[in-house]
Amino acid sequence: MNDQLIVVSGIEELTPEDSFSETAKKTTRKKWPTAARRFASVILSMNFALSAVFYAAHNTEPSKLYEGATYGIFFGGMLNKPAQVQNADPITAPSHPVSADPITPETKETTEDNSAVPTIAEAFLKLYEYDLSLVPEGLYPIIPYDLSSEGDGELKLYNDTSLSVDINEYAVAEQTEKGYTGSEEPLVLIIHTHGTEAYSEDGVYGYSDTYNVPRSYDVTKNVVAIGRIMTRIMNENGVNTVQCDVMHDAESYLGAYERSAATIKDYLERYPSIKYVFDVHRDSVLMEDKTKTRPVTIANGKTAAQIMTVAGTDDLGTYYPHWEESLKLAAKLQVELNSDHLGLARAICLRGSSYNQELAPYSLLFEVGSCGNTISEATAAAEILAKQLCDLIKNGW
């Protein structure tokens, strides 16, 4: 396949630094090398011997990759806006951890001869298979793709700035915080600048022109649900976390970052203990022929959406002198994700805009899956992401 990928990403939209010109909205992404289906090693630990298995990675070599985000594309097929959208008080979270039901540990059946290994390998091989004949006539396909970091665990960075950055130097940087041992006051805020971003339905093979990018005001179907999962898991793991469930793009996509900035400032004023702000989104990756991609892998025995971490900078003029501290956190997170769940993380995306990350000591934007993924795939990814963040925070990151 030699199609061009058009990354229709919410992070492109209408930040204060952007001039809204086509130049600002479209950037050239580096070419991805051609690769045949490849295998990646899956390590089974505990009481079992190391067993190497491989998985197929279906990569495409586009002649050119670029990002674009136009208002019309984002709102193509958006659900009709309800007559009334609830304007919730942005300060809705409690000052103590949210109670949640415990997570049932996932079990895997294996034997001394590692009879489960072929099943895992087979799952990886089948993951990227796609039967175009299953797509109803007149619909565009939703195809599983591997958009993970190249190089079997190497740390990768997509640098969309004029800054010279060696991401490996940030990955080995020394800790800047003391280990977190718990507190009655919130340490982490999870927010959603584009809260209406939603996912594809389970079992759907294609989509029509009238329903291009899924969006929803139902907080059980959009990224607010993913933020709730992350909030619950982080609290269960001892990191006091609050979530703002306001959809800052509910009234209009225009000005969403300005509204979320006001919300972040409100939370920081109410809870000065907050040091980490995570803005949870979902990406949108489309080919030039309107084929929608579904970036997936297998993690913890489940099909999981792939995650892209976005770090902002001061490259476009925002006063953000500590952006490198957040990039260190992003690099450390990428190392951990690659180490424990190879294929889950896409390359870190470094941007010239700040995306409100200048407001807190540490702040990152996460694209949990894309519009081609299902919410169950995004959920599997969010569970892992939340746990990895907890481990880093507890260890002084």
What descriptive keywords fit this protein?
single chain, alpha/beta, Aminopeptidase, globular, disordered N terminus
SSE run: EHEEHHEEHEEHEHEEEEEHEEH
* Rg, Å, rounded: 20 Å
What is the annotated CATH architecture? 3-Layer(aba) Sandwich
What percentage of residues falls in helices of 4 or more residues? 10-25%
Number of helices: 8
Termini Cα gap: 41 Å
Given as residue ranges, the uncertain stretches (5+ residues, pLDDT < 50) are: 1-10, 16-111
What is the overall silhouette? globular
CATH superfamily: Zn-dependent exopeptidases
Portion in beta strands: 15-25%
Task: Describe the protein's architecture and organization.
The chain is α/β, with parallel strands linked by helices and 397 residues long. It has a single domain (5-394), classed as Zn-dependent exopeptidases (Aminopeptidase, 3-Layer(aba) Sandwich), CATH 3.40.630. The chain is built from eight helices and 15 strands. Strands 5-14-13-15-9-6-8 form a seven-stranded mixed beta sheet, with helices on both faces. A four-stranded mixed beta sheet has the order 2-3-1-10. It is globular.
Structural topology:
Layout: E1 5-7, H1 22-25, E2 27-29, E3 65-67, H2 71-75, H3 117-127, E4 140-145, E5 157-160, H4 167-171, E6 188-191, E7 206-207, H5 223-236, E8 241-243, H6 256-270, E9 276-283, E10 285-287, E11 292-299, E12 302-305, E13 307-311, H7 323-340, E14 348-351, E15 362-370, H8 375-394
Parallel strand pairs: 1-3, 4-11, 5-14, 6-8, 6-9, 9-15, 13-14
Antiparallel strand pairs: 1-10, 2-3, 4-7, 11-12, 13-15
Helix pairs in contact: 5-8, 7-8
